[in-house]
């Protein structure tokens, strides 16, 4: 008999060492997430995947599954909180979806649709952020970075490079590039790198590939993020 | 610069874990960390430049652009404000012709605010080139301005500027202890290691840093790990505003602190210990190094301690201005030469701490208590206090009272008693345990100190009825927004949103729904943040909203909605560009 915990009343089997997120995904249950990606070390920073474990809030992407845990995820209250956390990410940066190339393929947007987010709720920060268009093939629009560190982890763990890092403290966090000038053009990045394609938002984009798929025919224009997520991430969780 | 960096890196045995100490040395010499130094360090330590830049931008005392040769930081603790910090800052800023947050054009002076420097009993306080300076007033500022004009080296300034008093007013078990170096350790070996751990267990001692985990249990967990390489860490980050008792323990009871650490090492089997000393306590560094050296000379540290088969030594690591490094896993990250970002748990430090090895982290006072329990036995300690909170607690008392300083009490003492002892009158409320703790009003003075009622890391700030509660809450809320490490969304964005929402209300721009919105935000930040910082950052608002709801409501405008954004003012640039100022070029904020 394999071990199980319950997720919203449903038994979920797991193996020792699995996180709640891994076990849930393997069992075909979606838990909203942004900084989590099955191929990279969990980070636990966006807090979108927060679930209630035996009465305490824990991040599903980092918290280990244990026998008999009582986990709540799809409650009205938790999803309302997730919506607010998503709204926090929207007001912190500058996200003008209609003019963004990623619109329709963006996970931040996809999660916002999924959580039925209809406005930004909080006051905007109007943070002054820059662009880095120095590289011939890859560009960064810092306005859309949500500090998920997926590019940092992908560069280290998939590309065996170290192109990105997050610097600064608190609300002054920002993405930095490992190069003499601090610009992308002088870094080791290559358009074929995993790090250049992993960004869940429109912060890292590949040049000259924009709008090849028209808006309205993109991933989250037709499917909910839970369905897409389970289809693409189920495999890698095994 | 090349040879300076190379020597520096050699002194630190080329270990990237020493990055913070290395960067502190570069900062002290060049008043910032020059680009060239970053490149050289990256090469010498074989770490990416981004990791070095990340660390520089994380810690308040490290800078990418030059600070003045005299870098002045003024403590922003609420107690400094109550002692007239605001006026003094203006005076200082005028006197030196430099505005807070900037560097004077000639590069000689820079001025800024800094979080509480742990001198609340002798403020207004600050730091000059990292050295603590106390009891600032106008005459002292005049003298400082002159010394700077004369470009006199800070080392040659009058000693009394840097005097830091202990101000001990009330002693109990620990502060009256006469334990001499080696006594606790001898008792430990004489009684037996297992037996000594039982004594600590029977003493009922719980951690004095705030969380109150049972000390004996923590040590036992660590000792039971299969990994043999283990570490002892003393948490002397003491960053909670209003706390300064660890400063006094390190100044006058350092032997007992190190004795406690060494006993812990004996019990858990550790060979290396660290004292993580907050950067603000730089003035204690050499004194503590000397105590360590004496202990080595006396055979209390090093190889074959007291002739036994035990090797252990202690290294002092200085922080660089980051409250979050008091959180134990962030502290460990910082010890490893990284940004102080709290780790995901589990695993806990007792199983995977420093370099992922089993590590005990305890507060300074906890180690002093264990040294004394090792000597006198568990019953001696447990005889004081209450059933749920054994022993005594050392408080740092500041704010509106006649005798701010250090007081030790058995747990169970009433707040009323403490206020009488320190000479507090006309009390409005007391902040217990610092901004992250509990605010109580003058209706609750019969509550008691203890884990069962008012738990505290030691901060005790008294406010009298002349104080404005909203000013206090604003100061605390700003503190958390400034100190959030920024790792998780609810704390990074949430603490700044709390600040914005509170400012909106206090500045009189709030309307009907704004207090409810503030409450909702406090709940989000508290429930979803990654670590204790975020989980307690909303406490000042939550506690005062509970006690003084009318105070918040009375700030609100009577209209149903008031935007946080001034529409008409933001059109100013457009008006200037269009060279217009007629009625049509102005917009009403809300329809009348
Ligand atoms: C934001 C934050 C700051 C903290 N600061 C300190 C501190 O300055 N000193 C301290 O001893 N503990 C501090 N703690 C508590 C530590 O994480 C840890 O619980 C403590 O050092 C354990 O020692 P103890 O069991 O002896 O109390 C802090 C915790 C948090 C969340
Ligand atoms: S990154 Fe996503 S959320 Fe942000 S602007 Fe682009 S589409 Fe919108
Ligand atoms: S650039 Fe994209 S992948 Fe990298 S941290 Fe920002 S949001 Fe995440
Ligand atoms: S997905 Fe778990 S914290 Fe981001
Ligand atoms: S714990 Fe550091 S920002 Fe949340």
Can you describe this structure?
Chain B: This is NADH-quinone oxidoreductase subunit F. Chain B: Residues 470-515 form the NADH-ubiquinone oxidoreductase 51kDa subunit iron-sulphur binding domain. Chain B: Its cofactor is [4Fe-4S] cluster; FMN. Chain B: InterPro entries: NADH-UbQ_OxRdtase_51kDa_CS, Nuo51_FMN-bd, Nuo51_FMN-bd_sf, NuoE_N, Nuop51_4Fe4S-bd, Nuop51_4Fe4S-bd_sf, Thioredoxin-like_sf. The complex is a heterodimer of chains A (238) and B (592). Chain A has 2 domains: 4-75 and 225-236, Ubiquitin-like (UB roll), CATH 3.10.20.740; 82-206, Alpha-Beta Plaits. The longest helix of chain A has 17 residues, at 76-92. By secondary structure, chain A is of the alpha+beta class. Chain A has 6 helices and 10 strands. Chain B is built from 25 helices and 15 strands. Chain B has 592 residues and is α/β, with parallel strands linked by helices. Helix content of chain B is 42%, strand content 13%. Classes of the chains: A alpha+beta (238), B alpha/beta (592). The structure holds flavin mononucleotide, iron/sulfur cluster (2 copies) and FE2/S2 (inorganic) cluster (2 copies).
